Each structure stands twice: as structure tokens, then as C-alpha cells.
């Protein structure tokens, strides 16, 4: 392993998780999870509501300390090497994280400056990304006046601004129409293929995982219950679609009863179109 500024060279795995545990009080949200993601792959982390997906992402991205276990992202330990870890990834959060008091353009520019993207790069890139999500004409408007879908699109554009090594997308396309979803995925796939960007995403749209993920891990009640390609998961379960395989592996019971108040509130917000879980 060699060190090269913040670009630590790692083996094949840009994400390596071993025996990861997160407890919230008595609740075991992530229960001894191990998995790895190879450089340059598109990886989907699937699971029912409350399974532990966001909690795992938060531990990978320095926002939450694990109760036990080890995590490496781009060779860095998110607990003890948080600065280097942060420079290695970009993230589109499940929850809104835009600044409502800034315009759409200012939100983009602020992020570019925060991540030290040079002006000659960010100027054309902001335009390209805002055109991609069809917000260029509305760049001077305040984000607080945007609809849920517009905010979501801006957030995705912002997450793609500083081409990181790993891009985390936590339910990136929730509530977006198929046209926008396809466009965004085309763009992400292009970055993945041209720049070797590793993509780690969660979604409840099984077709999205089926279409774009090279590897899938399924988590349920904090434990990984299966992993492999979509075809492998279908084979393992004797099903003909990823959705059927997913249901065979995780059951058909709705999870929200078991979840805590936070989950119920999220589901409530989702049901009322309140954005992104
Ligand atoms: N800060 C917290 N304090 C207490 N419990 C939490 C906290 N964050 C998450 N949990 C609980 O941990 C469990 C896993 O939650 P998590 O958000 O990781 O699920 P998820 O797989 O992302 O679900 P969804 O698909 O609904 O987004 C849930 O039962 C949730 O209520
Ligand atoms: Mg989540």
C-alpha cells in the first residue's frame, strides 16, 4: 500500500467493511455486516425500510462512529482518518441538505468551493450539470421556492460536482419521474465508465438495481442476507425477477411497525409526498 497525498492506493476493494455493528441503545441497527466493493463498480445496497442501509452509509462517510467492526474507504479509516476519507467520496443524502436561503446556482458554487474544485473546472461543469437536470434556466431562484423534485435534481447535480472516487447515493431518484431518472443514470454510468467512479447506491426501485448494479447486497434487520449480481440472486432464490428474489429473501411483511418513531415519521412524510424519507 502506498500513500499519494489523499489518493491512498488500495487493493482491489475501494470499500471494505468487516463485522460492522451499530447499536442505538438496545437496538441493533447494523448487525455484524461484512462486504466489499471493488474499484470502479456500481454497487446497490438494497433492503426494506429500517434495514440499516442509511446507518451503514453514515458510518462509511464519517457521520457516525461504529459500535464495533472495521471500515475502510479508499484505504482510509473513517473514524481516525476522517479528513482523507471525506475527500474520497461525494454523497447525495437521503435527507435534504441544500441551503434554502441560497439560489440554486449559489448552492452549486458553494459546494465547488468547499471541495476545492478550480473555477475553470466548476464553471463549465455547473452549467453542464444544471442543464442535465434542467435547472439551468432557474439557477437564480431561491431553493426554498423549489418543488421536491427540483430540489432532488439539484442535490444530485451537486453530488456530481467534484468527481470523487466513490459516489454514495442514498435513494437518489425517489420521487423523480422516469425521464429524469434515466437521464441521471445515463450521466452517472458515463462517469463510472469514463472516470472509474465507484457508485454505491440504495433504492427501492428494483428495476434500477437490476439495470445498473453490477453487484447487489441485500440487508434485512441489520444483516446481509444475500449478495451477488441480479442474475445470481434470481438463481439463488429460483425467481425470475430481482423483485421476486428480493421478496423471497426479505419476506412480504411491511417493516414499519418494527421500526422506531423515526421510521414511522419518514414513512408518513413519504406517503404525503414530503420528499425524501
Ligand atoms: N439516530 C438514530 N437513533 C435511533 N435509531 C436510529 C437512528 N438512526 C436509525 N435508527 C434506527 O436504525 C434502524 C435502521 O435505520 P436506517 O435509517 O439505517 O434504515 P434504512 O435501511 O436506511 O431504511 P429506509 O429504507 O427506510 O431508508 C431503524 O430501525 C431506525 O429506526
Ligand atoms: Mg435509509
Please provide a written account of the structure:
This protein is an alpha/beta fold and 277 residues long. The chain has ten helices and nine strands. Strands 5-6-7-3-8-9 form a six-stranded mixed sheet, sandwiched between helices. A three-stranded antiparallel sheet has the order 2-1-4, with helices on one face. The longest helix has 18 residues. The structure holds adenosine-5'-triphosphate and magnesium ion.
Quick recap of the structure?
The chain has helices at residues 53-60, 82-88, 104-114, 119-132, 148-159, 178-195, 206-212, 230-237, 242-250, 261-271; strands at 13-24, 27-38, 42-46, 68-73, 89-92, 166-170, 198-202, 215-220, 223-228. The protein has 277 residues and is α/β, with parallel strands linked by helices.
Secondary structure blueprint with pairings:
Blueprint: E1 13-24, E2 27-38, E3 42-46, H1 53-60, E4 68-73, H2 82-88, E5 89-92, H3 104-114, H4 119-132, H5 148-159, E6 166-170, H6 178-195, E7 198-202, H7 206-212, E8 215-220, E9 223-228, H8 230-237, H9 242-250, H10 261-271
Helix pairs in contact: 3-4, 8-9
The structure holds adenosine-5'-triphosphate (ATP) and magnesium ion (MG).
Residues 24, 27, 29, 47, 49-55, 94, 259-260, 262-263, 266, 277 line the site of adenosine-5'-triphosphate.
Amino acid at each position: 500500500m502506498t500513500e499519494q497525498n489523499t489518493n491512498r492506493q488500495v487493493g482491489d476493494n475501494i470499500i471494505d467493511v468487516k463485522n460492522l455493528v451499530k447499536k442505538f441503545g438496545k437496538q441493533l441497527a447494523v448487525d455484524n455486516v461484512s462486504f466489499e466493493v471493488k474499484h470502479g463498480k456500481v454497487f446497490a445496497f438494497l433492503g426494506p425500510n429500517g434495514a440499516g442501509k442509511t446507518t451503514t452509509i453514515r458510518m462509511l462517510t464519517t457521520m457516525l462512529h461504529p459500535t464495533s467492526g472495521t471500515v475502510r474507504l479508499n484505504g482510509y479509516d473513517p473514524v481516525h482518518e476522517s479528513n482523507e476519507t471525506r475527500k474520497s467520496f461525494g454523497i447525495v443524502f437521503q435527507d435534504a441538505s441544500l441551503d434554502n436561503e441560497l439560489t440554486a446556482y449559489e448552492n452549486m458554487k458553494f459546494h465547488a468551493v468547499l471541495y476545492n474544485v478550480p473555477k475553470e473546472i466548476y464553471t463549465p461543469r455547473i452549467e453542464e450539470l444544471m442543464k442535465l437536470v434542467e435547472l439551468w434556466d432557474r439557477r437564480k431562484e431561491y431553493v426554498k421556492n423549489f418543488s421536491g423534485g427540483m430540489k432532488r435534481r439539484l442535490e444530485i447535480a451537486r453530488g456530481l460536482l467534484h468527481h470523487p472516487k466513490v459516489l454514495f447515493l442514498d435513494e437518489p431518484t425517489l420521487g423523480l419521474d422516469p425521464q429524469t431518472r434515466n437521464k441521471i443514470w445515463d450521466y452517472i454510468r458515463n462517469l463510472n465508465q469514463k472516470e472509474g467512479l465507484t457508485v454505491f447506491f440504495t433504492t427501492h426501485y428494483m428495476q434500477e438495481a437490476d439495470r445498473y448494479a453490477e453487484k447487489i447486497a441485500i440487508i434485512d434487520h441489520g444483516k446481509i442476507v444475500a449478495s451477488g449480481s441480479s442474475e445470481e440472486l434470481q438463481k439463488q432464490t429460483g425467481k425470475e425477477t430481482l423483485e421476486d428474489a428480493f421478496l423471497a429473501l426479505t419476506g412480504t411483511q411491511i417493516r414499519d411497525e418494527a421500526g422506531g418513531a423515526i421510521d414511522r415519521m419518514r414513512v408518513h412524510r413519504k406517503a404525503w409526498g414530503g420528499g425524501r424519507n
